Amino acid sequence: MLTPKTRRHTLPDGHKLYTKTWIPTTTPHALLLFVHGFSDHINSYYTLFPTLACRGIQSHAFDQRGWGRSVQTPSQRGLTGPTATVLNDISSIIDSLLATAASMSVPVFLMGHSMGGAEVLQWAARGPSDMRSQIRGYVAESPYLTLHTSAQPRRMIAIAGRLAAKVLPKRQMVQKLQPRWLCRDPAVCKKWEDDELCHDTGTLEGLAGMMDRGAELNCDRIVVEDEKSFWIGHGSGDRVTSFESSKQWFGRLKAKDKEFKEYPGWFHKLHAEPGEDKITFANDVAGWILARANIQRTQALSEPQSKL
């Protein structure tokens, strides 16, 4: 039986992040670092990490600065800092894991969901070169390149928000998501809505940075390395982030080893979709990672016998 390990990771500025690790019961074949999305935290990803661990992928995740159990007081909600801080936090976690991966002789992968998906792709382009050279591949689930057309703010509102962020960067603002569009499972939507850690609160600086990170990728102002491997998964029924933007960005991606997986009709949280769908998604991710971790094909394609 898997027993996750929790701890606190201390950042260079002294801020402490809540982290959790799912360790396989057998020798790991790969190590994965996961970056969560907006108004989310790592304990709301259901069977994703246990399923990956059952496939031999040691999974590490952390509540980002301003989110989940990394928040100590209400004034810290959404206080992510600018993009440089967001990417530096990811680098700090990666740096702490590289020695572990080296000691196990396993490759390292980086995965993110929604806001975290865009952050992972940004890090793939802008992270420290010595660290990027040690990452085998990148996985983005429903990445936030642009919002779905029905969720996009008016242009003038977006411009005003960016200007206000320069004057009052730490000003908190609630950016309410529509629970019903997160997942096709009503119970998951209800649980998210009732979760106090999913507080929908950003800062003007953080919200502007989130929009800008996606825009930079979507407009190709930030270009990722083409020698790395990339997997993008997106549901065509997603009404939070844009499926079309992900597909178009993938089409422009020059990487030789890349895969785009469409989930017809699925919503935003692929990892929480109803019934066996969430297991299917987790196994798709696991299969892609294991195939690039030089595991025999029979192992890479095997399914866990027990449903978590």
From TrEMBL:
Q: For the Serine aminopeptidase S33 domain, which residue ranges apply?
A: 27-274
Q: Which InterPro entries match?
A: AB_hydrolase_fold (IPR029058), Hydrolase_4 (IPR022742), MAG_DAG_Lipase (IPR051044)
Put simply, this protein is called Serine aminopeptidase S33 domain-containing protein
Record organism: Letharia lupina
Q: Cite the source lineage.
A: Eukaryota, Fungi, Dikarya, Ascomycota, Pezizomycotina
